[in-house]
Records
---
Amino acid sequence: MTTAVAQCVGLIRGRARGLTPRVGIVLGTGFSDYADAIDKVAAFSYDELPGFPAAGVAGHPGQLLLGRIGGTPVALLAGRVHYYEHGRCDGMKVPLRTLARLGCDTLILTNSAGSLRLDMGPGSVMLVSDHINFTGQSPLFGETGNDRFVDMVGAYDAASAQRLMEIAATRGIRLHRGVYLWFCGPSFETPAEIRAAAMLGADAVGMSTVPEVILARHAGMKVVALSGITNFGAGMGSEPMSHEATLSVSRLASDVVRRLLNEFVTGMKNA
């Protein structure tokens, strides 16, 4: 693992033209178009980088882009691997440790999620304030040393969240806040599971993100996460759920996410 990260860092720096990214961004399902926002310096397919996952889900191109957004140097991961693809939740370990080694001190995560709140319908955007790891799985299984016991209090950076809320208020954007619960997928949840999630305190459910938050905190990065709401949870609406529908509806939230991230990342240039 350490060797793969070192190899990736060497390959990336060799083509980065001196750019040192400060912010890492992971684009989830339906958000791949945000890659157009970056002023590109270098691009890599995941299959060029040792230990990076193969892209296996529609809406996840599998590219690492280096460049700038509003002058802020960034590294953007267009696509993630999910626990349900191979039964392992550490698939993003090398990519995220590579970002941290390159210089990223903040990680921005995006995902598509199902809402458990009637006031937060499809097309809404939710700022993740905390999460529930319903799977019981960890990408740190097998790690050694005391640093594997990661403190998850304040896992989502409060100062960054406040900045995003202020940007949203200034721009007249309704930005919800809530707790994200991770189900492993790939099947969607049952109505009973959705009721259980709501009783546990969740506001939205999804099949990603939580392993990346754990890895980022283990690497010392601050974390920000935004969920694009694509549907109501099972039993809350009449529309059938499918990945195709998730891809289609996620585009309703993508413009809002683009506006929020552009201003948020640009503001980090001199921070």
---
Amino acid sequence: MTNSLKWLVLASLANLVGNSLGTMLALQYDLTGDFGGLLNGQDVLRDFLTFKGTALSAPLPFLLIQLGLTILALQPGRSGRIGVGGLTFVGAFYTVAQLGEPIVFRVWSPGGFDPAQAVVLFVNVASAIAMFVLGIRAWRTMRASVPITG
């Protein structure tokens, strides 16, 4: 296993933990998702179990897909490339999705600062960015190690 792949898997696991903690906080404080003011979440649990997610976490189906991609990334050959490519996409997608939530501005404003929410938000964004960057590195490493056939 290459270093870039190892770090990609660790970033994905950190992201899964951050999203799990984010789900718990969202359920506790009724933090519905509202990406860019477009989602208008109504019920935190329902939104988490379906496809909207919460203000601090991706929806459960996405997290299960991410877990599957993380396991695939550890496999050799084509399966590993699918996993790495998928995690790279997920990292980019999660970064945009999390930064599009209004909670980002609220949590970092003086009147709305909440330490637990701020830490989860930071972990989620940082690990998503890491997944994207490390995914690109792992992909390049995998491509460079593929033998040239002619």
---
Amino acid sequence: MYEPRAADSEERSAAWAARVLAEAGAARDRIDRVSRLVLATTHADPAASGDAALVADVDLAILGAPRPRFLEYESQVGREYAWLPGEAFRAGRAALLEALLARPRIYATELFAERFEAAARANLRDALTRLRAG
């Protein structure tokens, strides 16, 4: 359900999953759980715990990827948002990366923090430097 021009991709994805699960006869508590897990990828709750924290960390794992893969990902993001004027993209992307760097920890779970935190911070700082250079 991802659409780069939409601000509500996660919400639409959660609603779609809830509808499909309801049509399949899933119990309400399961539907609610799946919806919450999909919404965890909004990263609106930096204090998420349990499965929601794990899903959010999986979603952010790419940030701690080895440099060549991270650079490929950044290039993919740039192509995905090619419809935006360059300055608008750079400003928006920089704001997002700065917000991630401002967190005490990027990853909520110990597993992901231990494995990816340092690399993610290095990748994000490097990406910000490139964005600011234009």
